[in-house]
Design brief:
- The protein is mainly α.
- The chain contains seven helices and five strands, in the order ββαβααββαααα.
- The strands form two sheets. It has a three-stranded antiparallel sheet. A two-stranded antiparallel sheet has the order 1-2.
- A hairpin with a 2-residue loop joins strand 1 and strand 2.
Length: 151
């Protein structure tokens, strides 16, 4: 799943068309990991009643493709995306933290500066949770790029 730049989900190397709410749901879960239904509903639909937000969450979950393995795993009240789904933000985070912490393996595996100077998180999305994550990633990139030996 691509969250840096425009949202993109691919399954078996084929792009998947999703509703905007499905994109928001998968993006939030991709960034946060395991999350409760109430947090998801409240974050993605903050301006409606809890009952309406939970209904919107149920509808959105129903619209997410059901593959094998499923994209979303349920465990009680919490949900998470399948570990089989790669999220580009995680690679950026690992690289930046590796550079900041001086992990020599990070520097040998890939050119860190290329990953650290890529696109912003979900440009054009202006929801509070996206803005917070976008700023966190900018700060992480800044710290990583100032310590990168190729900068």
């Amino acid at each position: 799943m691509r969250l840096l730049g425009q949202f993109r989900l691919e399954l078996r190397n084929e792009p998947v068309e999703l509703s905007h709410n499905s994109q928001r749901l998968l993006a939030f879960m991709g960034l946060r990991g395991r999350v409760s239904r109430s947090v998801l509903a409240g974050t993605l639909w903050p301006d409606v009643t809890e009952e309406h937000a939970r209904g919107s969450l149920r509808t959105t979950l129903w619209k997410v493709p059901r593959d094998d393995p499923p994209l979303i795993l349920c465990s009680g009240d919490s949900l998470q995306i399948t570990p089989a789904l790669r999220v580009d933000v995680h690679a950026l985070t690992r690289t930046a933290l590796g550079v900041v912490q001086g992990d020599v393996r990070t520097l040998r595996v890939r050119p860190p500066l290329a990953e650290l100077t890529g696109e912003d998180l979900l440009p054009g999305w202006d929801e509070d949770w996206v803005l917070v994550e976008r700023e966190r990633l900018r700060q992480l990139r800044l710290h990583g790029s100032t310590r990168s030996p190729t900068s």
